[in-house]
Amino acid sequence: MSCANILNEFLKVDVKQYIESGILEQYALGMLTESERVETERLIRQYPELKSELEKIEISLENLAQENKMKSPEGLFGKIMSAVDDADNKETKVISISASKKSNTLNSYLAIAASVALLVSLGLNYHYYNKWQNTNTKLVAEQQDKNLIVDQYQTLQTSFDVMKNDMGFMMNPNTVAVHMKGAGDESMMATVYWNPNTSETYVSVNNMPQPDNGMHYVLWALKDGQPVNIGSFPADSSMMRVTDTKAADTFAVTMEKTADVAAPDLSQLKVIGNV
Predict the structure, then answer these.
(1) 168, 186, 205, 269: most buried by Cβ count inside 10 Å?
(2) Burial letters for 155-173: b for 16+ Cβ neighbours within 10 Å, e otherwise?
(3) What pLDDT, on a 0 to 100 scale, did the predictor assign at position 137?
(4) Residue 131's domain spans which residues?
């Protein structure tokens, strides 16, 4: 064996342990230091399993962002741009990050999403302040308009809080991501996020069609071959919490006639994955 081969064998990474460490989730969210990012990108290029896992994480994050997106109030963009035009121009330093195409796309997407969230928040505050100043001269209609603005702001804040909590749960080093693959149709895929320490369990659909008319998708936790119904969910679920799971070695989804069925119909098994 050559010296290069001996060195490669010595430096070989435990891929499963690396995936479970949560580093890939932090990489996808742009939370690593420069040296950590460079090392992670090297390993992604070296190990196809890490690249595949990163793609799945990106899909889950994109679904999560899509689930929590909100439309900005009418005319908000113009007001924000007017305010920006009055401010001092400041040079912004742009740091170029060399990464895979898909990783760059997701990091850019999250950066844009964060920027939009900040602009929306500033815009709502600006709009809210202007409306509030006029309450002394306007009657019922103005009061209703003000209440609507407050409700919109609170709804937006709630959505941000939910997204923050979901991301925090996904990035928890104790959280296990179980990718369930299609049992018949290989294009079907869903992910279970489970923390064995707290028993918290979430399901996120990556790609599943609407169930047949009158049917329900049911998630099962299996331990030593014994299934437990931990909840039904719609086909467009993104980080939906289901019943807490104390123990499991496998998760699976079947399509059932009722959501509270006690035993799975294995002829209708759709996706399955081992912990």
Answers:
(1) 205
(2) ebeeeeeebeebbebbebe
(3) 64
(4) 3-86+99-171
